[in-house]
Design goal:
LTTR; WH-like_DNA-bd_sf; five-stranded mixed sheet; D-Maltodextrin-Binding Protein, domain 2; alpha/beta; about 250 residues; DNA-binding
């Protein structure tokens, strides 16, 4: 059975669509309704699967956002340890540096490196992360960092802790390679084209990288798993939150 959309705003007392230069777009209320409808559909699917299997099943879709560096070196190995036990749980991954993914309800969970998590989100501190200067372990003498080919984040990350450290400690160094993400910086370092400052977990994940000194002063940060308060009641989100926290804290 089909029903016109137009009467809905009058019944609800709110506008579901807003006119813009690009045409009509869904309002925040419409987005929230769509999200709740999707949750309801997921709950029905979970009930159907549970009836078929004769037991409670964690199901649904959870959207998780993180940076590409965290994705490759931390998140994916952690997911591989427990996700096979939840075949009815679907995961959508979004790589981004922006907390607004969660704030705008575009994501349910955020795995972030930060010392100042947003106050409107709730979560758990999983680990302390240090940065070190590293390079491919190829036997070359790289003791004089000022004379090395440097790989660094580009102008999209001018306030990154490692960029500020380099400007402070090695003011005469101009990077030979600039990248739009820390993941790309790590890949160039792994290829052996120069030195780079990377999180300690990247070196643990890629043993071909060798630390060239102690952790960088003033660059320590924290790894947080964050969500919105309204997501804590969702079994799918809460299950992933707990399992991911456990996996990352035990292998930090």
């Amino acid at each position: 059975m089909c029903r016109p959309v137009r009467p809905w705003p009058r019944e609800l007392g709110v506008a579901l669509f807003e006119k813009s230069r690009r045409g009509y777009e869904p309002s925040e209320t419409a987005r929230a309704l769509a999200e709740q409808a999707e949750r309801a559909e997921q709950a029905l699917d979970a009930a159907r699967v549970a009836l078929e299997l004769g037991k409670q099943v964690i199901s649904g879709t959870v959207r998780l956002t993180c940076t590409d560096a965290v994705l490759g070196s931390l998140l994916l190995p952690a997911l591989a340890r427990f996700m096979p036990s939840y075949p009815a749980l679907a995961l959508e991954l979004v790589t981004s540096n922006d907390f607004s993914n969660v704030s705008r309800r575009d994501a349910d969970l955020a795995l972030r490196l930060t010392n100042e998590p947003p106050e409107h989100l709730v979560g758990r501190r999983l680990a302390k992360v240090s940065y070190v200067v590293c390079a491919r372990d190829d036997g070359q003498d790289r003791s004089d960092l000022a004379r090395q080919s440097w790989i660094a984040p580009d102008e999209a990350m001018p306030e990154h802790a490692t960029a500020l450290w380099r400007l402070r400690e090695l003011p005469g160094v101009t990077p030979n390679y600039r990248c739009s993400s820390m993941y790309a910086v790590a890949q160039l370092a792994r290829a052996g084209v120069g030195v780079a400052a990377q999180p300690d977990f990247v070196l643990r994940a890629h043993p071909e990288l060798k630390a060239l000194g102690p952790p960088l002063a003033g660059c320590d940060t924290e790894l947080w798993l964050l969500t919105r308060p309204d997501c804590r009641a969702l079994r799918s989100v809460q299950t992933l939150f707990e399992k991911l926290s456990e996996a990352l804290m035990s292998h930090g």
